[in-house]
Design a protein that fits this description.
Length: 229
């Protein structure tokens, strides 16, 4: 986590936003999505900045039994490799990736503390998040940057939030696996859950994980465990 303007600065995203394994093949069978789910999808797509025409196309794609490009693991991997965050831009950062079918992934980190714009010695609360419009999730971390070597720590990981439109998910868990950084390892916490997205048939099942690392007077959010300095 070097403070450089580079793709590795804040987000070292390597799948695990998503550690996703899809256990279903696409099918071309047609099934109608309920009006309630359509309304939820459109609201979620609006949040991602997807226009109405594209929203309708994406919903028809789901009704035909296909998953969206934003849900495909190979595209998630490309998103991770494309990351372009850097600490010099401050704490409130996000990126939106648009795929060929018009679906999107938005991911980022934002300060919960009002007015916090940059990382410096002190205590902070941040929310890490990932959203595809069909599956959205996030969680909070309280952490402290202590000036000096190997002093930074996470004091609390909490408030996991998950939305799976047209599906189910297990109760998300958050765990602090290493509260304080060491000379060779970052402090880190983890959020994880499993879900089933049932709008296309057969259903798509996956495991989602999100990690938060602190150390070297810096922090990052990753989609797979990457706690070695």
């Amino acid at each position: 986590m070097k403070k450089l303007v580079s793709v590795m600065s804040i987000f070292a995203l390597t799948l695990g936003i998503f550690s996703q394994s899809i256990f279903a093949e696409e099918t071309r069978s047609v099934s109608k999505i309920s009006q309630a789910h359509i309304a939820e999808l459109k609201h979620s797509f609006n949040e991602l900045g997807i226009d109405e025409k594209t929203q309708n196309t994406l919903i028809k794609k789901l009704e035909s039994g296909q998953i969206l490009d934003s849900m495909k693991e190979e595209n998630i991997q490309k998103t991770i490799n494309k990351r372009s965050f850097n600490i010099e831009k401050g704490l409130d950062q996000s990126e939106v990736v648009t795929f060929a079918d018009g679906s999107k992934i938005k991911y980022g980190v934002r300060p919960v503390n009002s007015g916090i714009k940059s990382v410096a010695p002190g205590s902070y609360t941040v929310e890490s998040y990932w959203a595809t419009g069909t599956v959205n999730y996030s969680y909070y971390n309280d952490y402290t940057i202590v000036k000096g070597i190997n002093n930074d720590f996470i004091s609390k990981a909490y408030n996991p939030t998950v939305a799976v439109i047209g599906g189910t998910f297990t109760t998300p868990t958050v765990t602090i696996h290493r509260a304080k950084e060491t000379s060779s390892k970052y402090a880190y916490s983890q959020m994880d859950f499993t879900y089933t997205f049932s709008l296309p048939l057969p259903p798509v099942s996956a495991t989602a994980k999100l990690y938060f690392n602190v150390g070297n007077d810096d922090y990052d959010t990753t989609l797979s465990l990457s706690d070695t300095k």
